Each structure stands twice: as C-alpha cells, then as structure tokens.
Amino acid sequence: TGDAAGHWPLRLGQELQTAAGQLQRHSRRPVYVCRFAEDGRNVALFGGYGLIGDVLGRIGLENAWTGRVNASGVTSAGIDALAGNPEARIIHFDRGRETRNAMELLRNSSLWKALPAVRAGRVTAMPVIYPSGGVYSAMRLARQLAKAIPHDG
Questions:
Q1: Quick one: which of 148, 23, 32 has its CA closest to 87?
Q2: Which residues pair with 151 in a beta bridge?
C-alpha cells in the first residue's frame, strides 16, 4: 500500500541516526570501503555519492577514497590506492571464494603487508551488501558499519 511505501524513508532515517549514534563511541578514522578482485592486485573502491558514499557521510564517517568514481560511486584501482590515507581503516566486503582467493594472494604480497592499515591491523571484513541497492541496502550497510568498526581511536 501507499502507507507501507511511505514508511521506508522514515525507517531509513531512524536506522542512519541509530548507526551514527553508535559510531560516536567508535573510531573516527577515515574508511576505505572496497571489494577485492580475485587476482589480489586490484580493488573496487566505493566513494562519491553512490549508496555507500552517501551512507558513510550520513552516519558521520569520512570516506578515505576521494578519487574519481563512476555514476554508481565505484572505481577500480590497484591495491596501492589503499595507501593514500595512512590513518584509514580498510573495510572490505567478503564475497566468499573470490575474497578468500584474493586474501591468500595478498598475504604473500609485500605491497599489501606494507600498507599502514594492514601493518596496524585495521582491516575489517564485512558481509556483502548490494552497492546499487535501495533503502534496505542502505539500512543494512549502516547497521553493519556500526557493528564492524572497532573502538581503535
């Protein structure tokens, strides 16, 4: 019904506000939100004004990726792009086998091991959300970020 559809914007606002409140007690580090390619050399970085970039801003997180993105708010880059902000946390979507394969290759990569976030243990895996999804994806992302980001100053 029309009433049910009108409920979603209010619910989204409440979820974002709840996540923002929870994150006030957590790290204020900038975050890279990404998805690793199976080759262990490339990464899809989320930024800009796509769903992920928008949710980050609305819950008070700084997106560490400030480079160009496509209309969906994503770009493909080499792993070295994750060195751009040495204070950032890397949050990546766990896509099962693809991510396991990438992480196995990254464990042996001197570039990966040299990244400040990796050296400091600031790498967090998170369940996948649909980055081009709608209201439900945005709410799920906000909840997951509030749960995944530790109190690491």
A1: 32
A2: none
